[in-house]
Amino acid sequence: MTEIENGVPDDIIRAVEATLFAAEEPLTVDQVATHLGLAGKAADVAPAFTRLQRHYEGRGIQLVRRGERWHFETAPDLAHLLRREKEELRRLSRAATEVLAIVAYHEPVSRAEIEAIRGVQTAKGTLDVLMEAGWVRVAGRREVPGRPVIYATTPAFLEHFGLGSLRELPGLEELRAAGLLDPVDEDMIGAALDLENARSPQTVGNGDD
């Protein structure tokens, strides 16, 4: 192992750095030590945090301690750039894009109906992402056995995509003419429209407000 000035092996420094960088939430020294297979040896790992903190001083990201937990965050003077990038570059996964399209074209819609259209199970996290973005909301429960939760779009969805109402959503022919559909997209949206026509007369935009 390569030793550095404070006696912490370089491979431990790098392992702590990688763990904190990949973590989805701030971690304690004990949690990092356990993750690295060093449970009960937090005292051996702790100096790595101080070393990394000094290393990142003055850089675009910093290692900070909040209570007993550590995490990387954008330098305070650059935080505005990160907020702007998140707004401009926010991208959805393919699954989230499909779910958003189904909700928009078929609302109010339950998770089971979304899965019937997509032909695959929909992870709860996918809907959570859309609700966190402010584009999908819980619109109540359907009055059928089990009373499943139903979802609808939000005013923020219309605003983000420049729509006056859901009636302005492009139809299948418009999407095809614009070259915005691949075969999978076309099958999915076609299924959504077929199911819409087969259901009782609940048209797009009839969600509970």
Automatic annotation (TrEMBL):
Keyword Cell division: yes
Alphabetical list of InterPro entries matching this protein: ScpB_csome_segregation, WH-like_DNA-bd_sf, WH_DNA-bd_sf
Record keyword Cell division present: yes
SUPFAM superfamilies: Winged helix' DNA-binding domain
UniProt-listed Gene3D superfamilies: Winged helix-like DNA-binding domain superfamily/Winged helix DNA-binding domain (1.10.10.10)
Family annotation (Pfam families): SMC_ScpB
Keyword annotations: Cell cycle, Cell division, Chromosome partition, Cytoplasm
Protein name from the UniProt record: Condensin subunit ScpB
Species name: Novosphingobium panipatense
